[in-house]
Amino acid sequence: MEFARLIFAGILISLLSNRVAAMAADLPPCKFKAIYNFGDSNSDTGAISAAIFPRQWPNGETFFRKPAGRVCDGRLIIDFIAERLGLPLLSSYLDSIGSNFRHGANFAAGGSTIVPQNKTIAESGLSPFALNVQIFQFDQFKARTSDLYKEKKKHSCRIQVLPRSKEFGDALYVVDIGQNDIAYGLRTVGDAQLLASIPDIITQLVLAVQNLHTQGARTFWIHNTGPIGCLPSTLLTITNPPPGFLDNHGCVKSQNDIAQEFNRQLKSRVVKLRTDLPHAAITYVDIYAAKYGLISSSKQHGFVEARKICCGYHKNGIDVGCGGILALPNGTQISGPSCEDPSTYISWDGVHYTEAANHWIASHLINGSFSDPPIPITHACYTTS
């Protein structure tokens, strides 16, 4: 009986996928005027670099040929999304030098969480730009943009790099945050307490989406969180793990179980959001499945072993971050250089992904392979009801 139910469920999912794919084929692409992104370091294009400390070489070496505010050798998933939609790469809202917001803005900041933290940056390692702060920044950005356009004769030069007020409703709103809430919880509380906090964490994300909706946002592209138990920064600290501690692909099973529970509850709330906001198009994007799929078959896709790090030095108990320099008592200096060919690595620095990995993941997300509904990002503005 259980097998029959699984077969029926598979047929139902297949039919739904075919229906959505057919719908996308019959409809013209969405005409997104801009992208507004909210997130953490996975999609930060310059916030922390501008506000707290600049990213250092070799970050940016592959694509930008210099540090470009990203913790990566090149482009992030949000960059590939912008390119696919024919829009410029997003400037960070906090970067006041040379930024152009005509086609959107990026409010993501490295170290950000969904739930605000009470501790300082030094105590927690997290940024002060939690999701609610990013929403406040968007509210201010939208309000001030509107005010400047009302006085456009006085501000004719300034508004050339700002979106038109009516275009906020024709934008794609990307939400890519949550990994730090889980990572910080794993460091500070037990698994049971972290699991108990997940509903509240997701409620804060839902409130952010609802706030954006009241501001006129109608198309949302919401990422779940990735397989945190597969991050090399975690795996490098583990020696002689007991049986069952790691899964078949060498990832910490308990950590991935928590990430998957977060994702399960997030998806459930996204489905409810579609009922609560019937005129919005809300896509749930399974970035966990995409990243785990790459990690679990890294060599088949031309990458080295997934737990290897391209940038940084982590040997014999010595840890030097990407681009960092450590002076030993004997006068020797150890640096954290990058590998010779980042395009063969999945992990850039143990936490963040290389441009090559981001490109692989983005290509599978953008075409709808890991989305609910399974629709390409070019057609994400259409509701499925």
TrEMBL record:
Alphabetical list of InterPro entries matching this protein: GDSL, SGNH_hydro_sf, SGNH_plant_lipase-like
Key words, A-Z: Glycoprotein, Hydrolase, Signal
Keyword Glycoprotein: yes
Signal peptide start and end residues: 1-22
CDD domains in alphabetical order: SGNH_plant_lipase_like
Keyword Oxidoreductase: no
Gene Ontology molecular function: hydrolase activity, acting on ester bonds
Family: Belongs to the 'GDSL' lipolytic enzyme family.
Entries under PANTHER family matching the protein: PUTATIVE-RELATED, ZINC FINGER FYVE DOMAIN CONTAINING PROTEIN
The protein's name in its UniProt record: GDSL esterase/lipase At5g14450-like
Organism whose genome encodes this protein: Gossypium anomalum
